[in-house]
Amino acid sequence: MFKPSITLLSAAVCVALAGCAGTTNKTAEPVKLVQDKQYDNVLLQEFSGPYQGVPQFDKMKLSDLEAALEIGMADNLKEIEAIANNPAEPNFDNTIVALERTGAALDRVFTYYGLWSSNISSPEFREIQSRVVPKFSEFSSKITQNQKLFERVKTVYESAEYKKLTAEEQRITWMRYNSFARNGATLTGDDAKRYADINLELSKLHTKFANNVLADEENYVVYLSEAQLSGLPESFVASAAAAAKARGKSGMYAITNSRSSMDPFLTYSTERELREKVWNNYYNRGNNGGEFDNKAIISEILKLRHERVNLLGYENYAQWRLEDRMAKKPENAMALMKKVWPAAIARVEEEVADMQAIADKEGAKITIKPWDYRFYAEKVRQAKYQLDSNEVKAYLQLDNLREAMFYVAGRLFNFEFTEITDGSVPVFHPDVRVWEVTDKTSGENIGLWYLDPFARKGKRSGAWALSYRSHTTFDGKTNVLSSNNSNFVKAPEGEVTLISWSDAETYFHEFGHALHALSSNVKYPSSNSGVRDYTEFQSQLLERWLATDEVINRYLVHYKTGKPMPKALIEKIKKSATFNQGFATTEYLGSAIMDMLFHTTDPDKIGDPVAFEKSQLDALGMPSEVVMRHRTTHFGHVFSGEGYSAGYYGYLWAEVLTSDAAEAFADSPGGFYDKDVAQRLVDYLFSVRNAMDPAEAYRKFRGRDAKVEALMRDRGFPVEK
């Protein structure tokens, strides 16, 4: 389910956006179920049509959004008040389960809000967003600071009944209590008011940060003439022409300010000055001065976050953030990162030496700069492994890769995907397609999978997964509505879309999130929430199936000849698996370490965030040829909301689990399709979602905790003996 990127709404979501209804008691009339209410506004209405109901994307109107949000929040607060003021003694059913039923109408509105925010944004939407986000914060505070509600939850959590609950019931009770206690419910008087005021201000700043980045992505486009296309692959040129035409620049070629356009341009273009320009456009987003500059916003966000957690008694924001995550303490997260960091930057030094040698041999008379890294890394790849990324790309057809993902899902999860082409399921853009997901054995409907693969104006960069509805059984079984969203550059009409190996891994990665949602077997809505340094694990793990022989032999065929990828090319890919890991690991760790430093340092000592970024990375020995994957001024994971703030390290934490789990498959008799290991994968790593402590779930799968040495082996780094 989409959750707006605003301060603490994620905490309130646990209370406010789960299901729908009120509760009953012995001394009062039954509370009217809000789910029985008939709404005129389509954004609030129950999903209708087939497959247990689907979002009415064909009927949604932006003009309905603001009113729908206000009505949804008001009705949700009525439900909350009914639970908080129930005169019956608090118990699991009339408090915790009742909360699981609240907010269904608002939940539906957020489905549409999430699409306008991420997939089909516009200046008109952003105006509405700037008005409603502060209201979200006020709404959140009314729930987290509802003392009567908190006392009821606390009573259940501390009751004798709690010990008799099932493991899942105990966990959702703990999560509710914990979300209240950690998010201001224990504060009173002036402290409680200040806490709410900080949340309100942060909500505005997060939205402004995100919109500034999007503005820089839309405003900085490099248009090329035919004479400036040297080195670029044919498929990329065709896509760039289509992108320019869509922007009213027919006859030119557009390099948009997105990773999916920037990355291949820097890899193949022989125009060094243009590479530098494209690089600067991308990595300076949010740092260009003027109305869209993010530096002052970052400073204010850090100060407010620090002040807020001080009110709760924490020394710094990271300490508060990690308390209920797998890492537990900032020191543990930093220790993992610093264990990998020396090997990563040492590998960068080797990579740069290899690249400089080629540049010198060619008589380029340059010193390798960040905008040269991808270009010369590609030359090194070809020299060392005789592996041409463009040659590989010819076998990576977007549609075939989708079918490959379906194949993997069938082998591991017993899922079958059948496209819905009769128009019975509305979509929000012509590019979106929908598949029904069923169990291959029983034919039972599991849910729907929506795919929105292509970049366009108004769609934020990157790739992500959304769930429009999650699996539950506590009030009857619900199916899953899951969505994957990417920014691949669309090929011209009638041509196939080809993507890089890295993009193919990302495609599988996001599908892993979808499978995590589709395989859910939990009872309550809250169990579908995630622990941030664990939720990336399942998706990272699914990337490993791209390189399996079964996928390569069946689906990686040449887009022109239809012939399978040659075994010699496959061997080159596998031999080069650890190639450029210095760059990949260092650019990621630079971002993750800076995230932690920003949130463990007194904001008054930080000053200019860009200057702080430079001084800290210099102290760490960050190679000058590499920059953070997400530089501070466009680090949306951290500053457009709080989903990954002080938590970007979680990708590495999850990667340790991924590498260790991958070895469990590799060492099994059936390899990556071993039935026994696959069953444990589904039972303990996917279907349980957050109904079980992640550390316990992993031990059930593996028989022990994960070992960091598996990660070092995966990346070709030295392993201490």
Automatic annotation (TrEMBL):
Signal peptide: 1-18
Keyword annotations: Hydrolase, Metal-binding, Metalloprotease, Protease, Signal, Zinc
Catalytic activity: Hydrolysis of oligopeptides, with broad specificity. Gly or Ala commonly occur as P1 or P1' residues, but more distant residues are also important, as is shown by the fact that Z-Gly-Pro-Gly-|-Gly-Pro-Ala is cleaved, but not Z-(Gly)(5)
Cellular-component GO terms for this entry: cytosol
Gene Ontology molecular function: carboxypeptidase activity; metal ion binding; metalloendopeptidase activity
InterPro entries (alphabetical): M3A_DCP, MetalloPept_cat_dom_sf, Neurolysin/TOP_dom2, Neurolysin/TOP_N, OpdA_N, Pept_M3A_M3B, Pept_M3A_M3B_dom
GO BP annotations, alphabetical order: proteolysis
Domain Peptidase M3A/M3B catalytic: 265-715
Domain Oligopeptidase A N-terminal: 75-191
Top enzyme category: hydrolase
Annotated Pfam families: Peptidase_M3, TOP_N
The enzyme's E.C. designation: 3.4.24.70
Comment on bound cofactor: Binds 1 zinc ion.
UniProt cofactor(s): Zn(2+)
CDD domains associated with the record: M3A_DCP (cd06456)
PANTHER family linked: DIPEPTIDYL CARBOXYPEPTIDASE (PTHR43660)
Family from the record: Belongs to the peptidase M3 family.
Protein name, as recorded: oligopeptidase A
Organism of this sequence: Pseudoalteromonas peptidolytica F12-50-A1
